[in-house]
Write a structure and sequence with these properties.
By secondary structure, the protein is an alpha/beta fold. The chain has one domain: 3-Layer(aba) Sandwich (Rossmann fold). It contains nine helices and seven strands. Strands 3-5-6 form a three-stranded parallel β-sheet, with helices on one face. It has a two-stranded parallel ribbon with strand order 1-7. Helix 1 packs parallel to helix 9, helix 2 packs across helix 3 and helix 5 runs antiparallel to helix 6.
Length: about 260
Amino acid sequence: EHHDPIFERLTRWTRVILVDPPGFGFSTPKPGFDFSLRAFTDAYTRLMRELGAGPYVPCPTCTNVYPCALIAAEHPDLISHAILMQALDWDKERIWTSKIVDPNGDLARPYTGQELIYRTRGSAAANWYPNAVGDSRHHESFLRQACTCFDHGGNFCLASLIQAWFGPEAATPVFPPFHQPTLTIWGMNDRSHRRSDKRSLLAIAPHARLIEREGIGHFPEIEDPVWFEGILREFLTGIDAGSGRNLKPSIPQPLMRDH
């Protein structure tokens, strides 16, 4: 629901596919889902295959960048272009998570972390938006929408993700190179990332073009949907003009953020 304004714009000229990550929003994970990066990657891949609407232009933010990068490398027929937003390379993302998202290590503790995030998810959102959103005028409406989703059964399995991705037994993933045209976008008013190395994501996508945008924060496409639509149109049109192809992309886009 946070994405309604950008979806209203994009659906005028392309097909938009909305994806709730398993364990977030209204996508309840099956009992065997282990929240590993591989589990997310395989789930998205199966969904894309079953929909049969590819090739896709994924526009993920934060943690969803990593499974999308793997899909682009492992299943290049599914991805034509990619826009990767508000993410770091893996090691720096691990450090950022431990310092900003879970500074006391409470969410990293199995069972107690799950209980804690369920009990405090409303207050977690209230603390998160003022730090992450670039324009304070969005804080109240973003928080109200998140809490409405919680009240209607929305999932927020952040502790499970942190434990599976960055726990003591979690292996550091290898990101094979991929070659699809790619943008990496950073909202520079994301205070949670004020000290982050924005260029570090280029370790995963070294061929990408980096765009740094002042005035927006952790959610570039929903904080300024008019600007984002323009960036998307320019990106697709500019690249395909040389090939003479008329691309009509489908865009998988998470509804709710992982944090």
